[in-house]
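The authors assume throughout that readers already know how a fold can be written as discrete tokens. For illustration, here is how one protein appears when written out as sequence plus structure tokens:
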Amino acid sequence: MHSIDHNWQRWIAENLLLDATAENIQAMLVAHGFDAQEAQREIEAALASPYFQGGTRLRNRLRKRDWILSVYREQQRARTNAGTVMRHEKLPREVFFEEYYHQNRPVIITGMFDDWPARKKWSLDYFRAQCGTSDVEVQFGRDTDASYEINQMALKRNMRLNEFIDLIEQSGPTNNFYLTANNTLHNRLALAPLWQDTLPIHEYLDTKSPDTGFFWLGPAGTRTPFHHDLTNNFMTQIVGRKRVTLVPLCDTPFMYNLTHCYSQVDGKAIDYNLFPDMRHAQLIECTLQPGELLFVPIGWWHYVEALDTSVTITYTNFLIPNVIHSQYTSYQDV
């Protein structure tokens, strides 16, 4: 037998706060080799602790916030077309900001960048000709790391763009390698010739902003796991299609969010036995076609999978202030 250390004591407290029964907690401790009587004493000590009682009061405050979210959820789901991402042709600025941006609702907008040279020019052969010898940073080895997005810093690799394109052409659908927004800092200069093929979207974006967008390139099968962003985002789909599964901000209590802005849930094949609360989440699916713009509101969970070889640019430089995450200071503790 071994003693119950601080890590196990914290585990006991967390599970009590999550309404696990003392009997089940004791049984789990015994299954891990702890003495049954010692386990019972630790559980009783936790329940009697004023620190735990303070934690219980804080938990109940959080439950009230969850209840408020549930009220908002019921109101939102009662809206017409609440389970659909609407499509609008060239949505006017005032309508976009009033009905979608400020109301935290996704929307697909068409016809906003049909005049971009990129819509006609961009292909893997064109990228080779323009930037093939440039050194780019990519994420590599994603298939061997279940937490590939959380651990993306460890998966960075540099290679020539033409080598990366060769990999795309030679592979079938795969999530093993992807050039993403997380690689942007290195790749802005490497891919600079491509930006002349894009034009400002004056209707919604601040074209004087230093943010010129974030470039994504990968084969069919690349995935971005369930997460929420800390800003409002535009996804500008230029080449290929992407399937996007969205979950409203108000359904956050169902998303098993234990680390920063990431969910434990695999959006490709949701295991409802392992994550039963996901049965209560509203899953809203859409397929983003080339030439379409998807507005992803801040806080909305989304899972993204490329159906084809895909090129996307994302933007955050809206005409309305979009620096909302400055008050989010607890991300390292979640």
About this structure: The longest strand covers residues 233-239. The mean pLDDT is 93. The longest helix spans residues 50-77.
